[in-house]
Amino acid sequence: MKKICPKCGIVDKSHRCSKISNQKKRDDGFYSKYSWIKLRARILKEQPYCMRCLSKYGQIVDDKLEGHHLLARSEYPEFELEEDNIVMLCKQCNLELGDSSILDFELNNKDKEEFYYNNKKK
Asked: Where does the HNH domain start and stop, copy by copy (predicted)?
């Protein structure tokens, strides 16, 4: 299946974007902190599948799940451990959305929707 690169817009099924590959992710140790590990485990129990794949494609994907911040940590560090700011996504969906606070799927969760729209900068 062809995918659209979120950084350069190229449509291809095997495209590896140099803009993404060359980005240096900051390693501040956040994802190895006990508070994140505990929160991620709790959310994973409630959402044992990729929310984007289910909403956008009608598929249940439960492999290689990652916690995705609806409001990016880089823009909204005050919400990095806010449960309503995190959804489970498969690795592919998390890469496609990247470090962006723009969503391309319906959340289908009232609490998360309210949190997202009430806190997102206009």
From this structure: 50-99
